[in-house]
Amino acid sequence: MSIARVGLWFSLIWLAQSVWAKPVDMAQVVEVMPLVGAMAYLEDASATLSAEQALHASGWADLAQREKKNGVTESAFWLRLRLHNSGDFPLTRWLAAGSTLTQNVMFFQFDSRGHLLRHVQAGYHFPLTNRPVNSGMYSLLDVALAPNETQTVLIRLQTNNTLILSAQLWEPLAYREYELNKKISDMMLISMAFTVGLFLFLAGGARRDWILLSVGGWLLCYVLYEFVFFGYAYQHFFSGGNAWLLLRPTTFAMLAIMFFIVFMYFALQLDQHPVLKNVMHGAFVAFGAIPFVMLFDAHLAVRLANVFTMLFLLVGPVLIISFWRRRARYTAALLLASLSAAVFMGQRLLYLLGLLPYSLPQVDWVNFASVSLIGLLMLLGFTQRIAASYREKIVIQDQLIFEQAQKQSELEAAVQQRTRALHKALIDADEANRAKSYFLAKVSHDLKSPLTSILGYSQQISAFQHAEVARKSSIIYKSARRLLALVSDLIDYATGERDLDALHPKPTYALDFFNSVAQEAQALAKINQNRFVFTQQGHLPKVLLMDTKRLHQVLINVLSNACKFTHQGEVRFVLLADLTAQGRCELQIRIEDNGCGIEAEQLSHIFEPFTKYNQTISPEGIGLGLAIAKQWLDAMNATIVVDSEQGKGTQVCIKLSLALVEEDSLSLQELVIEHHDLPWFDGQGKRVWLIEDSALILQLLDSELRELNMEVVTLSDGQQALALIAQTTQAPDLIVTDFHLPSADGQQILQAARARWPTLAVVLISAAWHESEQQTALMPFSAHLLKPIDLVDFRLTLAGLLKLALIHPTPPVHHSNGDALVLRSQQAPWQASWTQTLRKTLSEQQKQALCQLISLNAVTDIMDWACALKADNPTLNTALDELIALARNSDLNALQTLATELE
């Protein structure tokens, strides 16, 4: 076959096809022209035909003889349209095809000879910018024809949603006017529905009203459905193209119906009907499953959604009408709104399924009026429910007020009766409280008086210069003070003035505290002829923040057990300190003994109260020591672990974390060891340099030295001290220095001083022994005093180094009285009569207060009263010191004599 014959054959086929439909004259389009009757259609079941194959394929049919809808189908459909310009001028018209839900739209333009001129892709599957005409509502093709020109346009339509075979030819300005009016009406509709829906949804959530909440959610989902259905979501949010956007109208429609089901469930009280209750539950689950089906088969999901929705729109109104009488109160307007909505949604569904005739899209004022009516009915229903709820609350409040008035009268009668009973009980309680106060006062006196005597005698004994006597008296003094503090706590707790379980941490010299514990433990160890060893490892800070009373109680309880259950053995007290980067000190305290040990089955019960694990060896005690220790360690966030083997000994390990604090945070009473009688000497003419970075300690020692008539130069910086040593020409008689100082330490000051004055005495005052011992090999200090400062040792050390004679202001005089040793104070020759000073200086009110305390034998209160008075009256220091001495020695006869003289 020749080429000419082939061309002739194709031309005949093209001419035969071209007469199938009459061309549409574009010159006759004023605003818009429907093209349903002017087009032919072809179904491509495999969706694989090209434009040329579709153009020359057989099977084209007139679109006017077929329904405009094809439901949900996987086929692709082709529309064929011939356009002609009969005018004298070039014309441009816009060809709109499909609907707002069409996913894939393709336009193919052919000339009169059948040659492809143009190929345009449109639909939601492609970006909006690819379209020749920017519109999110329809897929548009701009067709421009010259005078007497004819073109053939093929339109390919394919979607996962309901397929609409329709097209219109628009005059461009008319289309833009239609689009603007459509957007205005839709936005008014959507904004009104959104406002009403959001208001009802929030109001229902705030009031916990499921009816209002479901109605609001239903209306909000409808708004989202309309927003996607009319193409606004694609135009404003997904203009880049999104195939899944077609699934969202169905998803929002299913959510709206699910809220509709919840509304009907509560508004019609279907929970009271077992069969319908299960049916509604099943319908809720079925509609909720459809969005998940879309993930696997979109066509099936849309078909199911259409079928289920149609069934629901048929059954729902029937249920509303059938159960109208059984409805919940104040829901009539909302149910009318739901009926209107069912009619509205049914009309929309019939249109999508092709069961209603197609009409040219215009501004649907009927649609706008329907949705407005639904919104007004919903607001009316909300108003009815709120007003009814308010009326019900008023009735309930009136009833509650009436009941409350009745209960109030009954309560007043009961209160009057109870008041009389309480008045009598208060009188009895007041008498009991006075008896309790009297008893506690007596107990306080009976317990504190002997302890005060012990404190006084131990201080007087410590004035002896014998080192061993002073050391033992110091142990007695510290133990008595701790016992006095415990007694005071118990008395305060009994009177309700103190929490017995509270911790009271305070800055404390660490080494002094553990040394005092070790001294007490050493005395306990000697009872059973045990050897006691105290070792300290690691860098122990100067000052730690701890509750010394409770920690002392814990350690002594554990150490006393170790000493008690060990005979002629060894007790070890090991202290390991480790500093952390967080500014804390991690302490590990191990107490080891080689005594009898503890049986394995009893080891897990040793922290239980009243548990004694070996009564044959040590029957004394009631078994509370370790229980109390565990209680206080728990309060300190510390741990205690006991490891023991019977016959080989016991090891107790305590771990606790303590905070580091500066030395300046110490209170005055923590800086010194208090003594009543201090040795005195005249330091007239002696020059002392005092170097200390703690302002409080510097002030304390400066005052102490000036009281001894010395000339004092105070320095707080090591570099200043080195500069003064280098510049001064006259050597001081003595240097007292701390070890850790800013810019330079005590060892450097010692070396600089000895370099200029080799025989100069330099005294080190520090908080740890190793600060001098580690430097002994280099150059020893003349003396080393440990903080807290013992003023007796301080004065004795200075007197010895300066070679000054001691003068005691109240020398001890010994009088034998049976088996007791009584120490009394005698006035020094230079001291005036202190009783006359008190009688002349004290006011009448102060004299009465002192006499009242003496009559109650409240020796500790007398001491507190005198100490407080000393702060305000420095001229009475000598007389008040004598008064404190009498109270501390519990010299009741002398106190009674003083009271007689004051009266």
Walk me through the structure:
- With 903 residues, the protein is of the alpha+beta class.
- The protein has five domains: 151 residues, Sandwich (Immunoglobulin-like); 180 residues, no CATH class; 137 residues, Histidine kinase-like ATPase, C-terminal domain (Heat Shock Protein 90, 2-Layer Sandwich), CATH 3.30.565; 135 residues, Rossmann fold, CATH 3.40.50; 90 residues, no CATH class.
- Strands 1, 3, 4, 6, 8, 9 and 11 form a seven-stranded mixed beta sheet that branches.
- Helix content is 50%, strand content 18%.
- The chain has 25 helices and 29 strands.
- Strand 25, helix 19 and strand 26 form a beta-alpha-beta unit.
Shape: elongated
Strand content range: 15-25%
* Biggest β-sheet strands, sense, barrel: 7 strands, mixed
Q: How many structural domains in the coordinates? A: 5
Radius of gyration: 53 Å
The whole-number mean of residue pLDDT values reads 77
Which residues form runs of ≥5 with pLDDT under 50?
1-20, 771-777, 809-832
Helix percentage: 40-55%
The CA-CA distance between the termini, in Å, is 156 Å
Strand-pairing-aware structural class: alpha+beta
Number of helices: 25
